[in-house]
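Example 3.2
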Amino acid sequence: MRSVARIAALFVFLCGIAAPIISAADSADCAGVIVDENNVPIAAAKIALQSSTGRSYRAETDGAGRFLLRSLSTGDYKVEARKEGFFVLDGQNITLRSGSNDVTLTLKHAEELHEQVQVTAAANQIDTQDTAQKETMTAGEIRDIPVPNSHILQESLTALPEVVQDNAGSLHIAGARSGETQYLLDGFEIGDPVNNTLSARFNVDATRAAEVQTGRIGAGYAHSGANVLSLETPDGDDKWRVGTTNPIPGIDIQQGVRLGNWYPRFTFSGPIERGRFWFSDAISLQHTFTLVRELPAGSNTSTQWAGDNLLRLQYNFSPKDILHGTFLYNRAQDQSLGLDPLNPESTTLDLHQERTFVSLRDQIWLYDTLIDLGVAADSETQDFFPQGTAPYVLLVNGTSGNFFEQFHDHGTRVQGLLNVIAASRHWHGTHQVSAGANVAGLEFSQATSRDPLTRERPTRKPAVMHRTTGRFRNASYCKGACAPIGTASRGAPCSSRACPAMCCPSATITPNSLSGGGYTMRR
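Structure, written as tokens:
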């Protein structure tokens, strides 16, 4: 009996050892990478495998675009991959064999389609692995959501619940000041080098995606401040694409025939060398015309010209070495800035603005590790010019002369980045290992030229009124309210036709006819 029991125990022991081995021999691992149409790895893409029995396995790509699913049954699977801003990859079949299986999946960026409709909807699932607080707008949403000025990207971004715009046009994200947000263009800082606001302009149609992060921001964002706003633009692909918006100018016929408000936009993209070298160019112009009817003809108009050009290049040295280049140029010129009924043309300023940004970024694969390094430089110049050197006179009923200040500022920034992202490791969970560095240098200069300022301060000595044919040179001599001659009311404000004695009891005045006259006050 003892021998039978020992044989049974040995049989059970051998079965316990053999079962995992047999199971491992029949199981399969699926390791893969998801890239776009230009072989650029896609992070945070969701993938699902469904077996013939209906069982599903899900994963998400890491920062290097890789994913891993372990201990799957061998056989045929249906693959679905998706990420916001890309077309859904659905219906593709793969076969998993025992052991390791390498898979490469390609997602294509969403583009405007004609004569084709694709309607898909995914379950609204909570991703427990994504701890960042973020919102994303795709290119379609930026184009389709109605805003007052659809040619200005900042106004389209206000469709995000965290973003508001003040009356000066600056963005505020999650209640933070405009300069407390880190603004990124394809991974590089694009905020103004001087005040860190989003002053750069580029074609709205060239925006592929906009993402806002308001909390739990990773260490990879070196100057995140309160929030991060990331803008992504296209590189082009093997298809030729041409787009235009508002190409026909508007004509204004108020007090003559002039070019009216006009906001044309143009986009071009395509291959320089198919399968290896692509470009994308986006140009936009802006002409704004303002007419102030209260001013004399010939000196009652203000115009603004602005233009920008965003050029993107991508060159694939190999599928594992991809170089990106960006060039952005902004230029704006305002004539008679600040023109209104109280500020005639002579008191206005002319504004000249210029902004240049250039960057290079190289992504290199070493086995399962992505090395991302890049360098960028940008500069901005701003000049305000008065219309002349005449004295600037500030009155309660308007201004005259020429503005007293000429202003110039110039800022430059150089930045570099290095990121090393290893493939996810699976050991008692999933672990993502990455390291990086970010360096930046800023330089700012400012010059101001001012004319001498003279200010007259009122005294409390008795005022002597002399009737002249001019106007009040300084209305601060009169305090309180006045009433016209012949009335006892004190509810009217002081004016050239009011009685100074009503508000300045110590003043003397010779009663004469007031028609066509005014007063000059002297102490």
